[in-house]
Amino acid sequence: MGLNSFDAVAGPRPQDVLPESASVAVKIVVVGGFGVGKTTLVGAVSEIAPLTTEETMTQAGAGVDDLFGVEEKSATTVAMDFGRISLNDRLVLYLFGTPGQQRFWFLWNGLFEGALGAVVLVDTRRLESCFDVLGRLEEGGVPFIVAVNQFPDAPQHSLEDIRLALDLSPDVPLVGADVRHREAGRDVLLALLRRLHTLAQPLEAR
Ligand SMILES: Nc1nc2c(ncn2[C@@H]2O[C@H](COP(=O)(O)OP(=O)(O)O)[C@@H](O)[C@H]2O)c(=O)[nH]1
Ligand SMILES: [Mg+2]
């Protein structure tokens, strides 16, 4: 099965067809609390029309989903986001964004299967919303980086303070980004790839 078989999802537009040279496909998962910008990140970087399962939040979510700071948000991802980005002629990333709300955690089963790494998005207004996610990644041994999605009205903290607040180990990369912008989103993904590359080296060479 060639890599292009994935394109059945998006249809046969010319830009959807991968170059013949594409030979490495990597699965990356984008996780984080509610409203941190997962769908935005996948949409900003994806070169295929991102597949997103947004559903208007129902009363069922009222009082359960923490809307603090994202009051205008009326849709939430119930299944996941899917996108694709070719980082160069050979390397293609498949992005899977998944909801951070606990009630959707059954979707996590299998999501990390075959995933090389994860991007954890955080919002400084609700840092605690990623604690569970970080715990699950650590438990599962999935390599990850943390990207702080800076919202204009969010408190400005130094990355060092955020690292302390999240109790991140010093070797986990922590970057700032405005994931609405393609370049910023791409830089986040590149930071994860650098991390994966480092982890692939023998300890003494890191
Ligand atoms: N100002 C600002 N707004 C953002 C940013 N990223 C996402 N948003 C907005 O925040 C809301 C939630 O983002 P969304 O991607 O749906 O969050 P998700 O629940 O993690 O998928 C949307 O209205 C986005 O337009 C950002 O970097 N800056
Ligand atoms: Mg979403």
From TrEMBL:
Q: What is the originating organism of this protein?
A: Streptomyces polyrhachis
Name-wise, this protein is ATP/GTP-binding protein
> Where do the TM regions start and end?
none
Q: Which InterPro entries match?
A: Gliding_Motility_GTPase (IPR052705), Gpn (IPR004130), P-loop_NTPase (IPR027417)
Q: Can the keyword Nucleotide-binding be found in this entry's annotation?
A: yes
- Asked whether the keyword Calcium is assigned, the reply is no
Q: Which family does it belong to?
A: Belongs to the GPN-loop GTPase family.
Which UniProt keywords are listed? Answer: GTP-binding, Hydrolase, Nucleotide-binding
Q: Which CDD domains match?
A: Ras_like_GTPase
Gene3D superfamilies xrefs? P-loop containing nucleotide triphosphate hydrolases (3.40.50.300)
Q: Which Pfam families match?
A: ATP_bind_1
**Superkingdom assignment:** Bacteria
